[in-house]
């Protein structure tokens, strides 16, 4: 059971995918965490994010370990747990420079395929989420979903998550992380329009539980043999 989920920032990919993986009893892979881990590692070791070759070499070498338990996913590099560090504003602000490096993408995409295969072998399946899982990393997945939501809904969610409020100032403070980042990231991946065979789930008017149920319904439809 391989489930691939893509979508823009704040559409609910990570949180919904984790709940879906738990419901299905399979492992979870957050591919955005890999771009974030590489960003953190380059910053920590003094590698210039604009030096495309050096960052791509770091992508190959990075001693990354990800825990695939959907209830407590972890990220470690060289034995150091960086699960919290990869969510800092500095990493969130700079990660697009790494994610739009065309020398980095094939390296991490290949590592993502290997991680998905390893998790599926361990747990019987995987829910993997990102920007190009349905199109490039795992176009043959059993289930492929584009999770979307209006820009307004995504800004509100991220604002509530980061600032604990959805007042105007908090929403404006969140705009860079949602709008600018998606604009940059969409120069290298197509995650605003569903590719052929990819099912769109729009969560703009759904609450969290409703979004999880909608994704599980797509999974069930795709994996129940037609009678
Ligand atoms: N359908 C939804 N309705 C309301 N809040 C949601 C919904 N889906 C996700 N959220 C919340 O929005 C925030 C961003 O979700 P997240 O899973 O991090 O999105 P993404 O991985 O796509 O950036 C989280 O706080 C999450 O709990
Ligand atoms: N498969 C992927 C996953 C993430 N990315 C990029 C997009 C983002 O700028 C970063 C971090 O992704 P992440 O999913 O953690 O971003 P969010 O903050 O959840 O929106 O990596 C990508 O280019 N391809």
Describe the structure in your own words.
This protein has 227 residues and is an alpha/beta fold. It has a single domain, classed as P-loop containing nucleotide triphosphate hydrolases (Rossmann fold). The protein contains nine helices and eight strands. The protein has helices spanning 13-24, 32-45, 52-61, 89-99, 105-123, 133-137, 151-163, 168-185, 208-223, and strands spanning 2-6, 27-30, 64-67, 74-77, 80-81, 126-130, 143-148, 199-202. The longest helix has 19 residues, at 105-123. It is globular and about 60 Å long. The protein starts with a strand and ends with a helix. 41% of the residues are buried. The mean pLDDT is 96.
CATH architecture: 3-Layer(aba) Sandwich
Helical stretch count?
9
How are the strands of the largest sheet arranged? 2-6-1-7-8
> What would you call the quaternary organization?
single chain
Q: What radius of gyration results from the CA coordinates?
A: 17 Å
Largest pleated sheet: 5 strands, parallel
What is the CATH homologous superfamily assignment? P-loop containing nucleotide triphosphate hydrolases
Report the average pLDDT across residues: 96
SSE order in H/E notation?
Answer: EHEHHEEEHHEHEHHEH
Q: Report how far apart the termini are.
A: 20 Å
Give me the CATH fold name: Rossmann fold
Q: Which small molecules are bound? A: adenosine-5'-diphosphate, deoxycytidine diphosphate
Subcellular location: Cytoplasm
Pfam family, one: Cytidylate_kin
Protein name: Cytidylate kinase
Family: Belongs to the cytidylate kinase family. Type 1 subfamily.
């Amino acid at each position: 059971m391989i489930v691939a989920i893509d979508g823009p920032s704040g559409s609910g990919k990570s949180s919904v995918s984790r709940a879906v993986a738990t419901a299905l009893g399979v492992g979870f892979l957050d591919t955005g965490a890999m771009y974030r881990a590489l960003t953190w590692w380059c910053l920590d070791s003094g590698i210039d994010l604009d030096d495309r070759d050096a960052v791509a070499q770091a992508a190959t070498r990075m001693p990354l370990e990800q825990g695939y338990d959907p209830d407590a996913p972890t990220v470690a590099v060289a034995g150091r747990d960086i699960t919290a560090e990869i969510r800092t504003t500095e990493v969130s602000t700079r990660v697009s420079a790494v994610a739009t490096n065309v020398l980095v993408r094939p390296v991490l995409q290949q590592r993502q395929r290997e991680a998905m295969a390893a998790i599926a072998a361990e747990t019987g399946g995987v829910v993997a989420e990102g920007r190009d899982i349905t199109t490039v990393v795992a176009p043959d997945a059993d289930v492929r979903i584009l999770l979307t939501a209006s820009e307004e809904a995504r800004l509100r969610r991220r604002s509530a998550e980061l600032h604990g409020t959805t007042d105007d100032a908090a929403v404006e403070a969140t705009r860079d992380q949602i709008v600018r980042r998606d604009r940059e990231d969409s120069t290298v991946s197509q995650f605003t329009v569903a590719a052929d065979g990819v099912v769109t789930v729009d969560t703009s008017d759904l609450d969290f539980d409703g979004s999880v149920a909608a994704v599980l319904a797509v999974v069930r439809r795709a994996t129940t043999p037609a009678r």
